[in-house]
Amino acid sequence: MKIKKAVIPAAGLGTRVLPASKAMPKEMLPIVDKPAIQYIVEEAARSGIEDILIILSRGKGVVADHFDRSPELEQHLLKGQKDAMYETVSEISKLANISYVRQVEMKGLGHAVLCAESFVGGEPFAVLYGDDVIIGEDPATAQLTRAYEAYGLGCAGIKEVSPEAILKYSSMKVAPLEGNWYKITDMIEKPAPDQIMSLFSILGRCVLPPEIFDILRDTPPGAGGELQLTDAMKTLARTKGMVGVDYTGKRYDMGNKLGILQASIEVGLNHPEVGEGLRAYLKELAKTL
């Protein structure tokens, strides 16, 4: 079955990037000249997703404004004969059919996904974590949807991380399937050192069957007293199994100050307007380090 719907949880408070996120949602922090969440929406659109639900919280209406039309700005650009910029701005509202729901209480990623149940409507759907920008030739979400279509099982985007990082993320019990696909039969959120199953962790993307909602309702609060999506996926992995996709592409953690800087520099180096100047600047700067 083709995956046509995606959910982007973007309700978090962004405490790791304060004070920048005090008045501006962290999802709107720019990578060169586009907000982080636009890269995520563009990835979904490139993956064949037609309908997107963005889960927001109080004070994040600017995200919806960004993906809306801006007639005054568009007219201003046309009057000034800035046709290329007009096209860039007006195309944002045409990326996908985007709707929004507000997560009234911050009860965890699992609770955020539960808010999307009526939008999903009994279909499999993709989840693109709002903190994770993944840039590559082959969109990460498309890599997961192909695996879902091949196996009919829930899929998780996985990457190997360091032994130190795995303690802050999740750990997967995996066995090779084919190529960069793995069978996942168990997982644990924020493992203790003696609970690590592998250094593979879910990072940023998954494709889930609609039965995940019933599982979430039966899942008790986990790490941090929150409803953890990983705990619900663990039930899915243990009962039916899941497919782990070691996706290609570079992931940037936009909830992390260093991740934001890395994204800006690396994307900037490939940017047609600023890439050459930034490269020259960095070469000069490197001499002083």
What does this structure look like?
Helix content is 36%, strand content 24%. Helix 3 packs antiparallel against helix 4 (83-91) and helix 11 crosses helix 12. The protein is α/β, with parallel strands linked by helices and 289 residues long. The strands form 3 sheets. A 9-stranded mixed beta sheet has the order 5-4-1-6-11-8-12-10-9. It has 12 helices and 13 strands.
Which keywords apply here?
289 residues; alpha/beta; nine-stranded mixed sheet; two-stranded antiparallel ribbon; 36% helix; globular
Number of helices: 12
Task: Write down the Rg.
Answer: 20 Å
String of helices and strands = EEEHEHHHEHHEEHEHEEEHHEEHH
Strand content: 15-25%
By secondary-structure content and strand pairing, the structural class works out as: alpha/beta
Please mark out the parts with pLDDT under 50 across 5 or more consecutive residues, or reply none. none
Q: Report the strand count.
A: 13
What share of residues is helical? 25-40%
Shape: globular
Strand order of the largest sheet: 5-4-1-6-11-8-12-10-9
How far the N terminus sits from the C terminus, by CA atoms, comes to 53 Å
Largest sheet: 9 strands, mixed
Mean pLDDT: 93
